[in-house]
Automatic annotation (TrEMBL):
Pfam families: Glyoxalase. One of its GO terms (molecular function) is dioxygenase activity. This is Catechol 2,3-dioxygenase-like lactoylglutathione lyase family enzyme. The lineage of its organism: Bacteria, Pseudomonadati, Pseudomonadota, Alphaproteobacteria, Hyphomicrobiales. Residues 9-134 form the VOC domain. It comes from Roseibium hamelinense. InterPro entries: Glyas_Bleomycin-R_OHBP_Dase, Glyas_Fos-R_dOase_dom, GlyoxalaseI/FosfomycinResist, VOC_core.
Length: 142
């Protein structure tokens, strides 16, 4: 086979945290994501159509996990990570206002050469989150 069969997109985005309660208060309470799964080592949030944000309890996911359907390989990370949410350009100012109102500091704002804008801020564990408006990447033009 010369070409892979194809991918349907990114299904899950992971982030690792030390404080699961603070993470839940932030991701559901501040960002408005609905928690779909609550476990000891992970929470899963609806991050959009067919998109899931997985919040893992750092240090508790390194071992393989047997399930009735098979083995989930262990994984973990250290230090802050980064991921981005898509927003419309018209939502930039409402997001600036909202984040200020809930005392979430925008640590950086970038206007990209393609014309899109990104707002960067941190979750309670120091992970860097981005709200990105198009156009940004060749495949994210709005």
């Amino acid at each position: 086979m010369k070409h892979p069969p194809g991918l349907g997109g990114i299904l899950e985005t992971p982030v690792y945290v030390d404080d699961m309660d603070a993470a839940h208060a932030f991701y559901e309470g501040v960002l408005g994501l609905k928690r779909m799964v609550k476990g000891e080592r992970l929470f899963a949030y609806n991050a959009g159509p067919e998109q899931t944000l997985l919040v893992f309890h750092r240090g508790h996911t390194g071992e393989d996990v047997p399930t009735p359907g098979g083995l989930v390989p262990g994984h973990d990370t250290s230090g802050p990570s980064h991921f981005a949410f898509k927003i419309d350009a018209e939502s930039l100012q409402p997001w600036r206002d909202y984040l200020a109102a809930v005392s979430v500091e925008i640590i950086s704002e970038v206007v990209w050469p393609a014309g899109g804008t990104s707002l960067y801020f941190r979750d309670p564990d120091g992970n860097v989150l981005e709200l990105a408006s198009p156009p940004l990447w060749p495949n994210y033009t709005g």
